[in-house]
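To: structure desk
From: M.T.
Subject: fold request, one chain
Message: Could you run this one when you get a chance? Sequence is below, nothing fancy, just the single chain.
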Amino acid sequence: MSAKAERLHLRVDAEQKALLEAASQAAGASVSTFVLKAATDAAADVLADRRVFLLDEDAWRVFDEALERPAQEVSGLRELLTGSTVLDNPGQAQR
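Reply: Done. Structure tokens follow.
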């Protein structure tokens, strides 16, 4: 890893600062280390589905065959996704 020469400056309110300080202390890291790790992990997650991935010939064949198979009905999935949940009408969801 190369030497760190770049800086980011952030403005936070007192509550955010206290939260970051408490979390970094619980993790056993400095606030800078904690925030940098959390931010770079989040950035990697955001970009993960936009990256190129490579497969060897056998893995590509399996992947391609899976993509070419016709869609199938999954028992119970339609009902699960269209039924009420506790998030729709709290206290009114089907149990």
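Reply (cont.): Residues 14-70 form one domain. Let me know if you need anything else for the meeting.
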